[in-house]
Amino acid sequence: xxxxxxxxxxxxxxxxxxxxxxxxxxxxxxxxxxxxxxxxxxxxxxxxxxxxxxxxxxxxxxxxxxxxxxxxxxxxxxxxxxxxxxxxxxxxxxxxxxxxxxxxxxxxxxxxxxxxxxxxxxxxxxxxxxxxxxxxxxxxxxxxxxxxxxxxxx
Length: 154
Description:
Blueprint: E1 3-9, E2 12-18, E3 23-29, H1 40-53, H2 70-79, E4 88-89, H3 90-96, H4 103-111, E5 124-125, H5 138-153
Parallel strand pairs: 4-5
Antiparallel strand pairs: 1-2, 2-3
Helix pairs in contact: 2-4, 3-4
């Protein structure tokens, strides 16, 4: 059974989904559906998101259910290693996973990330150091980067 809850963040409403043991999704939504957060993992996710948005959490440590190809999982694991407040390029991630020419595939894997913010795909930018690609919209990506930069300075 999939449990659902919501978090009202500074960048919009987030829908969180999970099973009994693992967080499986974070999605930007406009409206709430049924809210049935009876599983402890969602309570923990809500707490960690609250801490993140209030500048008190730099890393998430929630058990995740990653559903994707082996390549995608390798990319998502590399994304989790990007330090809070840092920015890397798609090529940097391709190099980090041992496939330096796969930067387009890295971009596609980023696009398939079902756990934005938790798996920080917002920290990946173009090789020209411009913001490109973010399912939640580039304004949200910019907000997250600015938020982390401001907290990192303190």
